[in-house]
Design a protein that fits this description.
Blueprint lengths: L6 E10 L5 E4 L6 E4 L7 H7 L7 E6 L13 E5 L14 E6 L2 E11 L2 E5 L9 E12 L2 H6 L11
Antiparallel strand pairs: 1-2, 1-3, 1-9, 4-9, 5-8, 6-7, 7-8
């Protein structure tokens, strides 16, 4: 069976950056499952999966535009320490949950200069070319319930 919209796909992957440093991998925790055509993985990787089948292995480089996007300056804010609960205890690299007009969002403390704190709401991989090494383990037709719910059930997927 080939991968098309409505397929459940289980795959192993290793994701590296331009320096071949591993960013993420499913190889130790087991295959990742997704419902093809639902935008559950980055666009460039999903496009590369189309038409492939179980047993296929491939490598692909995904541009930032087809991955996590380019950094958006509007998602960066500079605030003072007194505007953040526990602001005096923050360290660069910490993740915080912030509220704005769009709802809850995870932001990273990207810089601390005195009492001025820079918060970045961009995805940590925004602006990066993503290098995937993929092996497709299983392809099957999604159940009616999986299509209705918009996600995979069972091993590698969601459990209700």
């Amino acid at each position: 069976m080939t991968i098309t919209t409505g397929s459940v796909v289980l795959f192993d992957y290793t994701l590296t950056d331009n320096d071949k440093e591993i960013i993420d991998s499913s190889r130790e925790e087991g295959a990742l499952a997704y419902l093809h055509g639902e935008g559950q993985i980055v666009k460039g990787l999903e496009k590369a999966m189309e038409g492939r089948k179980a047993g296929d292995s491939f490598k692909i480089s995904v541009s930032p535009e087809e991955g996590y996007g380019l950094p958006d300056p509007s998602k960066i804010a500079v605030v003072t320490a007194d505007q953040i609960e526990g602001g005096e205890e923050l360290e660069e690299g910490m993740q915080l949950e912030a509220s704005n007009e769009e709802g809850e969002q995870i932001v990273v403390v990207s810089k601390i200069e005195g009492d001025r704190i820079t918060l970045d709401g961009n995805h940590p991989l925004a602006g990066m070319t993503l290098h995937f090494d993929v092996t497709i383990r299983e392809v099957r037709t999604a159940s009616a319930e999986e299509i209705e719910h918009g996600h995979v059930h069972g091993p590698g997927g969601h459990h209700h």
